[in-house]
Design goal:
The complex is a heterodimer. By secondary structure, chain A is an alpha/beta fold. In chain A, the strands form 5 sheets. In chain A, strands 2-10-9-8-7-3-4 form a 7-stranded mixed β-sheet, sandwiched between helices. Chain B has 16 helices and 12 strands. Classes of the chains: A alpha/beta, B alpha/beta. At the A-B interface, helix 1, helix 2, helix 3, helix 4 and helix 5 of A face helix 3, helix 4, helix 5, helix 6 and helix 7 of B.
Chain lengths: 447, 486
């Protein structure tokens, strides 16, 4: 009757006899009658695979994806190249049907993969210690803020307004109920206003959070931010685009204390918002304050190299309410995906992805501002995204672009009302010259 | 099969390549004309350089060192390691689901929004709740959302005194941890000898400083607390709310619902009850459901339906806000939705019935060899307290490690904390009589070995690729990444 339920009616009888009851219902006699559900669940009847597939097809048929649309939308989630090898490895059931590696003897596959992932994140960011992942870039940032508060014993967090609006919303929810004061510092000309920052950072500040490249796609000059932060003995928390780390100054070189970011670009599908992964790295000094799982290297009783979850005394299953975080499940399979991506693309590949994205974004920018209707909004160096101002609102432009099967940009005015008719466009290595020219032509044609 | 022992960094060789991108077809500008030098790195990046064959062999050989549900039985109490149906994987990888940007115009994502809407309705029905948010990424995340909702509810009523959450000593570690992250203090109450909430203990701590009680039912001993209605009544009378940890939902689907027991907030674990895979530690999904009075506080956005059109509603002034970017782990939601379609109302009920039958069967077979602290009808899991004759030098850990030699992942050990030397077993409904009998044989065999040859168990396992690891060394001298030794 149900392919996922193995036992037959005969098997049931054998088991009931061993237990010493007549019917399965007797095993539920401890549920009081006034609590028992006296009707069927009001959900669909069971369906066969063929019926399920048919139903799902009508659902996905109502979507328009990157199968039909050319994507120039970024704003935190990106249409980057996903090597075909990834699916073949992550769909190995020894990886995806495995439990958390609490029994290391039979989980060396998962544990070593995560150890390699941690190494790759450390190498990319230039910091010493990385954890096994958090739910996404936004929650990683929130956990980074809490980490700063716990380590410095101060109660204020400063976040730049150039940090992704969703990250700031999540930060607000996490800090509000822990009585952590969250202060936003203004943007000026598209970057963090360092004059205002200097006024705000004092000895009550635990951490300063800046995103790089920021939400507008602009590469922030971190030198002054770092100095202001560390002069006041606060922690510098950076939220970064992992692809950009192929060419930009690393958070390690910038002397950041905590790095977080969204790892979706590393081989994970856009998937309508998740699952993604938040990566986090920190200095050796803060190692024991980092939340989440951490894999370490050791030896077994025969002296063989082996990997194991370690520093577990920070975690909820040991420390309970004194844990550094409540996180239990993380995003292991997405971290595996990110590791395979970074290994497959490798040193040359990641650089090429970064370079092509940058070249193509700058080409698109140059072509678009040649059209009189569109003006640049900021005059700062950018990576793979940029903001332009149109003669119409972003939603009008995007509606028109959709008619040509183009996914337009993000409506900046929605979160930054001073920037009227501003549109954030993104170009990755996947876009071709002819796709960019088609975008430009379509934008020109909008009356 | 030869044992494979290399790190990817050890097989990296300069010049090897596993990728190929099309050449850049726009005119290239010198990078320094686009970005000033001081913003660029002074160093070249370090990433491995390997060929595609290297990557495939490396990870395939690594996967061979892993145990998974597809390899064998995982009798892990509290984890519900049921079979992960393959059609779920197929549906979750359809490009018209995966290739969607979360900020796309709503009219281009009606299929995905409809899926989310229908899933939240089905989950609400299974739990007896009035509305469900699919935003939390994991069970602990759902707990956090639920606790913040409780806090917001009290504060909105002008009640700022309620700073404490009651947590039983039998609770899963995430319960007090989540309460802490939500800014609460914890009041722990002792369970009675059945693992149930001791009503007198509960009454003694209820006052106007209590925001709520976190509970799971059946409890972490696998026993259904018959006083549940009385418990929720007492907490409500004291002005608190009652939170249901849905980790044990697999015991009661179609039989009883937390909403009918008096719970106000619930979280579910899609990677437990609803068959989505554990992934080696995630991704999961922990939807949170609430009763009517708490609907205004749910995280935004909520998927709503207006005349056959689905939309994301952000206009909820009392919402706790966002606990994650975007809307939830959509890829996991597709799997859970597919599972519920496949099982239907009768299938979910049958799953719970069989989960409970399987657990009681295993208990009936093991109780003569292992110490069973409470010999009562259990639900989907039960707890043993070490060997029947009491543990001597052989510990629960030794028993667990010896099970690895027999080819099994051990049950949950040393949890719940209220049973010494705990061994928590949850077979789930997807296991057959033959699988369970073979596991029972192994457990019986080990109990005999413990008497006749305790040394054997103390040094187990023998048949795994690595044996007992030096975990003390790993914690004392942490090596958390690869460093090339010159």
């Amino acid at each position: 009757m149900f392919p996922y339920i193995s036992n037959t009616f005969e098997d049931e009888k054998v088991m009931l006899k061993s237990i010493g009851v007549e019917t399965v219902q007797e095993l539920f006699s401890d549920i009081p009658n006034d609590v028992k559900l006296d009707r069927e669940l009001n959900i669909n009847p069971s369906m066969s695979e063929l019926e399920v597939q048919k139903h799902m097809k009508t659902l996905w048929g109502k979507n328009k994806s990157t199968e039909e649309l050319v994507c120039f939308l970024g704003a935190g989630v990106y249409d980057h190249y996903i090597p075909s090898i990834i699916k073949h490895l992550t769909s190995r059931s020894e990886f995806y049907t495995a439990y958390t590696p609490y029994q290391p003897e039979i989980s060396q596959g998962t544990l070593q993969a995560i150890f390699e992932y941690q190494t790759l994140i450390c190498d990319l960011t230039g910091l010493d210690v990385a954890n096994a992942s958090m739910y996404d870039g936004a929650t990683a940032c929130a956990e980074g803020a809490i980490m700063a508060v716990e380590s410095t014993k101060r109660k204020t967090i400063i976040v730049s307004k150039t940090v992704h609006p969703e990250i700031r919303k999540v930060l607000y929810t996490y800090t509000k109920f822990k009585n952590i004061e969250l202060i936003e510092v203004d943007e000026k000309d598209g970057v963090t206003d360092t004059t205002k920052l200097k006024e705000l950072v004092d000895s009550g500040v635990a951490g300063v959070i800046v995103q790089n490249p920021n939400f507008f796609g602009i590469i922030e000059d971190m030198g002054l931010v770092e100095k202001i932060t560390h002069d006041n003995k606060a922690l510098l928390i950076m939220s970064v685009d992992p692809i950009s780390l192929a060419i930009l100054k690393t958070p390690g070189e910038i002397k950041a204390d905590i790095v977080v970011g969204e790892g979706q670009s590393l081989g994970n599908h856009m998937n309508f918002g998740g699952p993604y992964l938040g990566f986090m790295a920190t200095t050796t000094k803060l190692m024991r304050k980092i939340p989440g799982r951490v894999v370490g290297q050791t030896v077994d009783v025969d002296g063989k190299r082996a990997f194991v979850l370690t520093l577990q005394a920070r975690e909820q299953h040991i420390r309970r309410e004194k844990a550094t975080s409540n996180i239990c499940s993380n995003q292991a399979l997405n971290a595996l995906t990110a590791a395979i991506y970074l290994i497959t693309m490798g040193k040359q590949g990641l650089k090429e992805v970064a370079h092509q994205s940058m070249q193509k974004a700058h080409y698109a920018f140059d072509e678009i501002i040649k059209l009189e209707k569109y003006k640049p909004v900021f005059d700062k160096p950018f990576f793979k995204e940029f903001v332009i101002q149109g003669h119409e609102s972003a939603s009008v432009i995007n509606d028109k672009l959709l008619e040509s099967n183009i996914l337009g940009g993000y409506d900046i005015e929605k979160n930054y009302p001073d920037h009227k008719n501003a549109l954030l466009l993104c170009v990755t290595e996947k876009r071709t010259k002819s796709e960019i020219n088609a975008l430009t032509a379509a934008m020109e044609g909008i009356k | 099969m030869k044992e494979y022992n290399k790190l990817i960094f050890e097989i990296s060789k300069e010049g090897r390549q596993a990728y190929k991108l099309p050449p850049c077809d726009v005119e290239s500008t010198d990078i320094r004309e686009m970005i000033p030098q001081h913003l660029l790195s002074n160093k070249d990046i370090t990433l491995p350089e390997v060929s595609e064959v290297d990557v495939i062999r490396h990870f395939t050989l690594l996967s061979n060192k892993n145990y998974g549900v597809d390899t064998g039985f995982y009798p892990l109490g509290s984890c519900t390691m049921k079979y992960n149906p393959k059609i779920n994987e197929d549906m979750a990888s359809i490009p018209s689901f995966t290739g969607i940007h979360p900020y796309q115009n709503e009219k281009t994502v009606q299929g995905s929004l409809q899926l989310m809407y229908e899933l939240s309705e089905k989950l609400a029905e299974v739990c007896g709740m009035d509305q469900v948010s699919l935003q939390p990424s994991a069970g602990a995340h759902g707990e956090l959302a639920g606790l913040i909702i409780i806090k917001a509810f009290h504060e909105n009523a002008g009640d700022f005194k309620r700073k404490k959450i009651i947590v039983p000593d039998s609770a899963h570690g995430t319960n007090p941890a989540s309460a802490n992250v939500a800014g609460f203090d914890i009041v722990e109450i002792k369970s009675d000898e059945k693992g149930n909430v001791d009503l007198d203990s509960l009454k003694s701590v209820l006052n106007e400083e209590i925001a709520g009680l976190m509970l799971t039912n059946p409890n972490t001993l696998g026993l259904f607390d018959e006083n549940i209605k009385e418990i929720s009544k007492l907490v409500h009378e004291a002005g608190g709310l009652v939170y249901y940890d849905g980790a044990n939902l697999n015991a009661i689907m179609g039989m009883a619902r937390p909403g009918d027991m008096g719970f106000d907030v619930v979280h579910m674990n899609l990677h437990k009850t609803f068959s989505t895979p554990h992934g080696g530690g995630g991704p999961g999904s922990g939807p949170v459901g609430v009763k009517k009075e708490l609907i205004p506080y749910l995280p935004v956005p909520i998927v709503e339906k207006k005349e056959e059109k689905y939309t994301l509603n952000y206009d909820k002034p009392l919402s706790i806000g966002k606990i994650k970017s975007f809307y939830g782990n959509f890829g996991v939601l597709v799997r859970a939705y597919t599972y519920i379609l496949s099982m239907g109302a009768e299938g979910l009920k049958k799953a719970s019935e069989m989960a409970v039958l399987n657990a009681n069967y295993m208990k009936s077979k093991l109780k003569d060899y292992y110490y069973l602290p409470i010999d009562k009808v259990c639900k989907h899991e039960f707890v043993l307290g070490g060997l029947e004759q009491g543990l001597s030098e052989v510990t629960t850990l030794d028993i667990a490690k010896r099970l690895l030699d027999y080819g099994y992942h051990p049950p949950t050990i040393y949890f719940p904390l209220i049973v010494d030397n705990a061994i928590m077993i949850e077979p789930t409904e997807t296991e057959s009589l033959e699988t369970m009998d073979a596991f029972i044989e192994a457990m019986i065999s080990i109990s005999k070995e413990a008497k006749e040859n305790p040394e054997l168990l103390k040094k187990a396992p023998y048949n795994t690729v690595v044996r007992r690891l030096d975990e003390v060394r790993a914690a004392r001298y942490p090596v958390l990444k690869y460093t090339k030794t010159i």
